[in-house]
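Problem: given the chain below (714 residues), write out its structure.
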Amino acid sequence: MSPAVSVADPDPLGAAPPTGQPDPSATDPAATPEPSDPTPSAAPAEEPDADDIDATAQRHDVRVINKFYGHVHASQASFGVSGGLRVGHASVGSIPTPDVDHALRYFTRPAGHDQAARTVGDKRLVLLVGDSGVGRRTGALALLRELTGAGSRIVGLSPAMTLTQLNEYEFGRGRGYVLLDWLGDRRDAAVLAFDVERLGERLRRAGAYLVLTVQQRALNGADLGQSAVRWSPPTSLAVLDAYLAAGNSLDDAAGDRVRSRVAELRLPAEVVRLLDRLPHGVDAALAEAEQTERKRVAAWFAATSSWEELLRVAALAFAHELPERTFEEVHARLREIDAGELTVVTPQPPQPEAVETLQGRRSLYRDGGLVARRYSDDPGVDGGWEERRIVFAADAMREHVLGELYECGYRLWRPLRAWIDELAATGDLEVRLQLAYAMTLLARHRDAAPQVRDTVVRWAAGRAAERFTAMSVLSFMAAEDQLAPAALRLVLDWTDGRGQNRAVTAAMALGGPLGIRYHTEAEPWLWHLSTRGKPIRTVAVRSFGLLFCTAAIEPDAATRLLKRLVVRLDRTLGHRPEPRRAGYAIETVLEVLSVEHLEHAEPVVAYLMRLRPAATSPVGVLWAESLRSLPHRAAAIEALRLTLQALSRHEDAEHAVRALGDVLRGQLTEAECGRLRRELAWALRTPGDPAQHRPVIAVLLTALAAGAPRPALR
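Solution.
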């Protein structure tokens, strides 16, 4: 490995390496293999793509989905939160201590806790088996904290890891590992039982502990004996008592009301959701816990006998919070499909007559209180000319409406499926995002989840707009503790033998929130996909850059990504691959070096070099290898020029530029440094205001010339 970045230096967060690979703190990451080239296999027929999303469109779509994602999260406090781990943090890698503290804030030991503690203490691993919401995640973290101590690091592993891969993993001594929502292993039950015993022996030799949470159906009927513990939830009142013992207080009247309601709740997740809402007011918290909105929705469905009203509410469930005229158009199209008036998509559906439209708007608000109109809270939107939007009377109603709709049967879902497919292919990005979020809400209903999966699989093989809609569904699922593992399994399944378009969709999804949550899967698979056929490679390279952009929200996480990229590049070039494969690797590196920040008008590497000096070392190594590649030299110099221009706008940037020059000088031979100085002196003659950039340029050129350069590795 290059002397600028030590291979032996573990990831500061102890992030798990690619699935089934050793802990970087225990072995040389350069020995970690990438996903092997898949054997071509038969793939479902799919329509050749003639409308691929270009780089600008993909970048724009990612920015929009991130903003939409944040808006939904802000408007629904419970979105994506269960079991204690907060949205926005990766499920793999080192789990920050504040996150563990947050998960355990109301923890109370259930009946099966002592048995699980004895099992993991004796066998070094335990599988907590149970349904969603019973507190398995919190229990797993509590067990590991008790075993390793409050100051010890807990490392999350990917739910996609098989037992074979776990048996190949190099566990760190004294560490606790947690694998949340394990997807299971599809091999024979007897083989699984044997591998579990073997894994326990490996953990014992390593002096480490592993707790897995899993649902019964993922065990494939295997009898794992004492290694599997059925996890039962604590009593609801016990969770309330833990809340009060933590220093929270309620007056007598409020305490009696809360205790009465808590006693009726079944799952710890429901109790925690209620307790977390108490600071916003006891009445509001109890109203949600009593499922007031669910009851209103159920009453409306029980009372309505109008097919027109049912279609209108169904349209709103999937096309929520759209401008009024946009909603009327998509609603009209649903009515047309239902009536059989049109059998193909029309670019501009005909508008209803004026009187009919007027009556439709009036009747829209006589449906029992489910539907309302809303304006933006921001008075500056559209200069004060914003169109009102059609919404449900309460945000929580949407999920309940979707659940009721699923029970309506084929008569409703025949036109709905055709209409939903049309929305997925529309050119209106806002419509597609609302549809994607609706599909995520629908997937929360266990019976509807298979339908959501089949629909997303179909869209993933479709045209560009449909693929983006599928990617958006997967991105929203990534925020849900219960749905994220299923989204990951789908995406990994598409990387091999499922057709070009699905592989492209997988690459897009791995460059977004799903990739942030499971970076140990996303990075190696994007690196591998960047060596496939051109359409897949192009999107995979962009997605690697976008993954880096998204990671830059947390500069330390982006810096760690850069260090892992150095290891990956060194591993690839160290094997002396054919020139084409080496070129693919450099293309991905250049995408990372040149990609612009999603929110700031500067390259992400310039942003990181200012904020995190530790990022300069891996950036310099990556640039040195890019500059050394003759076919990519011009692009590398242009990316370097843009970065220096961005840095020149900041008074304190000269130190970062000098450090970058030192790294480059250490990576390149004396002849290469001399040639680079001459080329940079010419290329960095910036048009506009050269005086502004000259000091930074001079610092870099001086650093490249100073002292005797160290010999390069290659």
